[in-house]
Specification:
Elements (H helix, E strand, L loop, with lengths): L53 H14 L4 H13 L3 H14 L4 H13 L3 H14 L4 H13 L3 H14 L4 H13 L3 H13 L3 H8 L6
Helix pairs in contact: 1-2, 2-3, 3-4, 4-5, 4-6, 5-6, 6-7, 7-8, 8-9, 9-10
Length: 219
């Protein structure tokens, strides 16, 4: 059977980020290598047609933070920017600083949790996603990622509970059915796995379509 990966969810953005520095992309991108793409920030001034570079936006945020280093949103935004600039260490530092100021900053908790997940620091990822779920009980994405972390630790039952809870919140999300199907497969529950794979494919998950269409993977 070919190797298949769980789908992780996108990074959160915070609305006060000032400018794009990349082309706007959909928040529901096709999964590549088992992971969602990040969401672009929102331009505050719709009349502004000049896009700042990452370096210019970083300088702007550095100036704001130099004037007030207790503004959690500015720290979060800089962390988000570092993440887009492929600097997860600095991103994690800024997310942590934002959380120190505002313990319920769900976006910072979410993004830091995703960094922990990528770095295989699963206990820390579970802790952050659990905090997001506490603050925002309707966060299907946080449930999805906590489920991924549980599964990576070998806790299939916990993961199954999280994906099932996420599906109740977001029943039209194909990735959730796909991930739950993989857990059912790992538990030997082929009938339930097939049902979820078919639903994921119906809703547009390309990995599920490929899986169902490959003869060696037919259930």
């Amino acid at each position: 059977m070919k190797s298949i990966n769980l789908v992780s969810r996108r990074f959160r953005f915070f609305i006060i980020v000032a400018f794009f520095f990349s082309v706007i992309s959909s928040s529901k991108q096709e999964a590549h290598s088992g992971e969602k793409g990040s969401v672009s920030p929102v331009i505050n001034d719709p009349k502004k047609d000049t896009l700042l570079s990452p370096e210019m936006e970083l300088n702007r945020l550095n100036g704001l933070i130099a004037k007030d280093n207790r503004n959690a949103d500015n720290l979060y935004n800089r962390g988000w920017l570092y993440e887009k600039m492929n600097n997860p260490i600095r991103a994690e530092k800024d997310y942590s600083a934002a959380i120190e100021i505002n313990r319920e900053h769900s976006d910072a908790l979410y993004n830091r949790g995703l960094i922990y997940l990528k770095r295989k620091r699963y206990d820390l990822a579970i802790k952050d996603f659990s905090e997001v779920i506490r603050v925002k009980p309707g966060s299907a994405d946080a449930l999805c990622n906590r489920g991924n972390a549980y599964l990576a630790k070998g806790k299939s039952k916990n993961a199954l509970q999280d994906f099932t809870s996420a599906i109740k919140i977001a029943p039209q999300d194909p990735d959730l059915y796909y991930n739950r199907a993989l857990i059912y497969l790992s538990l030997g529950k082929k009938t339930k796995a097939l049902g979820d794979m078919r639903e994921a494919a119906r809703l547009g998950n390309e990995s599920a379509k490929e899986y169902l269409g490959t003869a060696e993977n037919r259930l």
